[in-house]
Amino acid sequence: MKIAFFDTKPYDKPSFDLYGEKYGVEWKYFETKLNEDTAELANGFDGVCAFVNDTVNAAVIDRLEAMGVRVLALRCAGFNNVDMKHAYGRLHVLRVPAYSPYAVAEHTMALLLTSIRRIHKAYIRSRDFNFSLSGLTGFDLHGKTVGVVGTGRIGRVFIDICRGFGMKVLAYDKFPVEGLDNGDTVRYVSMRELLENSDIISLHCPLTDETHHLINAEALERCRRGVVLLNTSRGALVDAEALLAGIKTRKVGAACLDVYEEESDLFFEDNSGHILEDDTLARLISMPNVIVTSHQAFLTEEALSNIAETTVKNLVSFFQNGQCENELCYRGGSAEDCRSGKCF
Questions:
Q1: Mean pLDDT score of the chain, rounded to an integer?
Q2: Of 9, 127, 293, 320, which has the maximum CB count within 10 A?
Q3: Which of 135, 117, 120 is nearest to 228 (CA)?
Q4: Residue of 234, 250, 261, 262 marked catalytic
């Protein structure tokens, strides 16, 4: 099978070449992102492989269908960049529901430790032989309360890490995991209680209409003064303007962001020689208590291998069997359920 691979980066190729050769998948790598202007590049291919910042809207879906492309293989878990309602009946959408949960959870803790212990500032100082400790005072994680929004695989690994530091966990999830709440160090609570009682809040939930701007001005107003916010999930979970306002009023003590709502034209690219036109992101990065990384939480050798293997197996399963367990509509729902989004 021949697959058009969009938004290719150098770190993608080794794992995808390995598993592609093993399972008979032929890739055509394109550095450009998939969108209305580039969809034509998929002409003559059996399917396309896309990533988080590719645009798969109705126009792209219609063009892919017209060219005979049958399947979209997402090499990621999220699918908010795909018009799923329009895709129903036109394009089979496969995804990687889980790869290495440790990659994202560990990066989240790395961001938290870097922020509260001022590691990034100390590193810059010591490079200039400045060994002053002034302004580097942090705080212990032991005994602090962390609010974890989303208790899927990544959220649960992050909870385990936090428990290892002696932290108390308040968890929120629309679908609680049985056995996670022990009534003591880990408790499921309402979103309101989590906001009001957490020293640190970490987001590990998908982006949906319901979770869009989950952290907004109203939510931040409920938080403790000096709360630390972590987001390694999806950028639009956080209203960036509200976050900026919260930082200015000292309501937010620190923010660690691996994702950003308007990242699609910025992240994964070298923009160092350009003037940043996104004023909100520029102001966030300029804040001394904000750390921004470029959507790299997933970027470990283990995760890249997991992603490539699952993506390839998804494609092989679909083309050999006509179905795939990781197809987003493969839940036995009715056509009406799929069109309404209930089955996603």
A1: 93
A2: 293
A3: 117
A4: 234
